[in-house]
Amino acid sequence: MIVCVCNRLTETDVRTAARAGAATPEAAYARLDCEPQCGCCLDYAQEIIDEERAKRPHLRVVAA
Ligand code: FES
Q: 6-57 pLDDT, tens per residue?
């Protein structure tokens, strides 16, 4: 499923970035070599990240 149309990021992309330590959409997108454009996806991306991090409370935060 596409999360970010502007950057063509899938849910899997965002989950992978979250598992790698990204705690925010900005950090996740930076790990994916892009950055938010219109911003429409940020709330949904944050939900995905929060869900992924809740499954793995040991994840450390990695800055963007
Ligand atoms: S849909 Fe993600 S920045 Fe526009």
A: 999 999 999 999 999 999 999 999 999 999 999 999 999 999 999 999 998 7
Establish if 61 belongs to a structural domain. no
Residue whose CA is at the smallest distance from ligand 1 atom 1: 4
In ligand 1, the atom with minimum distance to the C-alpha of 5 is 1
Tokens 């040991």 correspond to 58
Residues with CB under 6 A from ligand 1: 4-7, 36-41
Residue 26: give its domain's CATH number: 1.10.10
Single out the residue of 43, 56, 40, 52 nearest to residue 14, CA to CA. 52
